[in-house]
Amino acid sequence: MLQQTQVKTVIPYFKKFTKKYKTLVSLSKANETQILKLWEGLGYYRRARNLLASAKILVKGHNSKLPNTLKEIKKLPGVGDYTANALMGFIHNYPTIAIDGNVKRVFARYLNKKETKINFEKLIDSNKKNLFITNRNSDFVEALMEFGALICKPKDPKCSQCCLNKRCRYLKSSNKIKNDKRKKTKVMNYNIFCYVSKKKQIALTKENEIKFLKNFNLPLIKEMENNSVNKNWKFLKNYKNSISNLSLNINLYYQFSNKIPKSYNWYSLKNNKEFIPSFTKRIFNQVSTLF
Ligand code: SF4
Known about the structure:
Blueprint: H1 7-20, H2 24-28, H3 32-39, H4 46-61, H5 70-73, H6 81-92, H7 101-111, H8 120-126, H9 128-131, H10 137-150, H11 169-172, E1 186-197, E2 201-205, E3 220-223, E4 234-243, E5 246-256, E6 264-268, H12 278-288
Parallel strand pairs: 1-5
Antiparallel strand pairs: 1-2, 1-3, 2-6, 4-5
Helix pairs in contact: 6-10, 7-10
């Protein structure tokens, strides 16, 4: 849940999730719809799907235990280097470092180097003796990430409180190397076409061609081209929606209709039991203003 998401956002989701699924076995018995419903609003839904798939694999093939090698852990869906190392540290107390953005920044600042110029794996491997001096490897993995988040922060690092400040090259240097990693926002323009029924329903389909919204139930979405729109569609609203580093400029259209194409199904605009991601909920909210 914490990948790409702040702790304060995650906490209520985590509590709800772990209350419902207390063990790996209970999680493995869940279905995707149940998991996505609990994840609703948190975004990056592939994480939820991968978590469920991993739980099933662990229960079925690993006696509900996490494998104890990086190689085996990385076979789980959605688990790359970062997650595998974090898990090896947290669960197996393995001496390792999970290299996330925070950790990269700490090393880069300490050495006053560009992150892109550092081979982190090599750096860690050749400094093993200095880095792994405790038996509390699990705490060390967590502490290093927290250190980046709370002390060597992206902006205004707390150098006066930092235990590395006597040796930190960034602090001492008159030529401080910046590692500005803000992702550029990409603006995209879409027309969204909603079939709406007088019963306060909206028709959704999984058949849309928008890559970052694959596998979701949505109205028809098309990239805005010259913006000539069939006159059956009435303009409802223009609004902006951000997803990750995408800024979506959306023109929302609707038409009342009882007939919908085959691949569509009706969904209630309110009290939905199905999983509805935030992007779709915003469409629901706009369309609800018609009633
Ligand atoms: S002294 Fe400042 S810049 Fe250097 S590691 Fe500590 S917090 Fe980061």
